[in-house]
Specification:
The protein is built from 7 helices and 2 strands, in the order ααααββααα. By secondary structure, the protein is mostly helical. A two-stranded antiparallel sheet has the order 1-2. 16% of the residues are buried.
């Protein structure tokens, strides 16, 4: 799920390419439709997602090495007590963290079922879902 959230953080306009929005994301359809389109031609979301995999892995491992996240049973969790105060203050004043897009990414997407015909893998087309 973390990789999907970070993918849409980098390419938010690709949220609009979902064939239909799974619940609870469907309640955000109007906000998603208002996301600005990219100024560049974006290749296939699935190939972009695949190409970003090594970057995702490196970023997660770097955060783990700095004790900012914990990884247990393939679940990444934030180590809030290890976050620098400067970073916390940046998040509090950052425009993106107070935007509708950010709320969609961190509040709505993680609530969407990942597997199955109506899951996020299927609806986004980013990952194989048929054998879940």
């Amino acid at each position: 799920m973390l990789k999907i959230v970070s993918f849409y953080y980098v390419y938010p306009h690709l949220l609009k390419r979902m064939e239909s929005f799974p619940r609870p994301l469907n309640y955000q359809a109007k906000k998603i439709s208002n996301i600005s389109d990219s100024f560049e031609l974006t290749p296939s979301p699935r190939s972009l997602f695949f190409e970003m995999n090594s970057t995702h892995e490196a970023a997660i491992y770097s955060l783990y090495q700095k004790s900012l996240v914990n990884i247990e049973r393939n679940i990444v969790s934030l180590e809030k007590q290890n976050l620098p105060n400067e970073l916390i203050q940046k998040f509090k004043t950052d425009k993106l963290t107070n935007s509708d897009l950010f709320k969609i990414l961190v509040e709505c997407l993680p609530k969407v079922k990942l597997d199955g015909n109506n899951g996020l893998k299927a609806k986004s087309g980013l990952m194989e879902y048929k054998y879940d």
